[in-house]
Amino acid sequence: MSINNKNFRNKKANLQIRFSEFDLPPMQDLLLIGKRAPIGPEATRRMINALAPGQYEVILIENSNIEAIAVKTSLFNWIPRDTLIKTILEEGIKLTSAQSLIKAKLEISVSVFKEVDINV
């Protein structure tokens, strides 16, 4: 047995496989579309309307890098539209360039604290 074969037997690989349900369209909760991204807002709108009609809204943005945001409309049930868009832009601008096409997952949790009278 040669030295090369011996080294090969000592090599190991670690694999991590994550299985998840396939989502349509192939984006998550948000898609940030840069001004010079490979697909623009209109192409994104057509893709979304073909694959998941009524589930996303494409919002045009006045920004030097970001041209539009596609947002899953059900998120507006949790947070007011303007607040959510403002927050997405504040954080998204830090990660994007004009060529970017970035998908994002947004998890929202709401905490409620309520005091009730226990004197019956």
Could you explain how this protein is built, in words?
The protein is extended. The chain has 120 residues and is of the alpha+beta class. The mean pLDDT is 86. The longest helix has 12 residues, at 81-92. The protein starts with a helix and ends in a 16-residue tail after the last strand. It contains three helices and four strands; from the N terminus they run αβαββαβ.
Supply the key terms.
120 residues; alpha+beta; four-stranded antiparallel sheet; 3 helices; 4 strands; 18% strand
TL;DR of this structure?
The protein has 120 residues and is of the alpha+beta class.
SSE topology:
Elements: H1 3-10, E1 30-34, H2 41-51, E2 56-60, E3 66-72, H3 81-92, E4 101-104
Antiparallel strand pairs: 1-3, 1-4, 2-3
The helix content is: 25-40%
Which residues sit in consecutive blocks of at least 5 with pLDDT less than 50? none
Q: What letter string, H or E per element, gives the SSE order?
A: HEHEEHE
Count the E strands.
4
Biggest sheet statistics = 4 strands, antiparallel
Give the strand line-up of the largest sheet. 2-3-1-4
Determine the mean pLDDT.
86
Broad shape? extended
State the separation between the terminal residues, measured CA to CA: 85 Å
- Please compute the radius of gyration using only Cα atoms: 22 Å
Number of helices: 3
β-strand amount: 15-25%
Q: Structural class given helices, strands, pairing?
A: alpha+beta
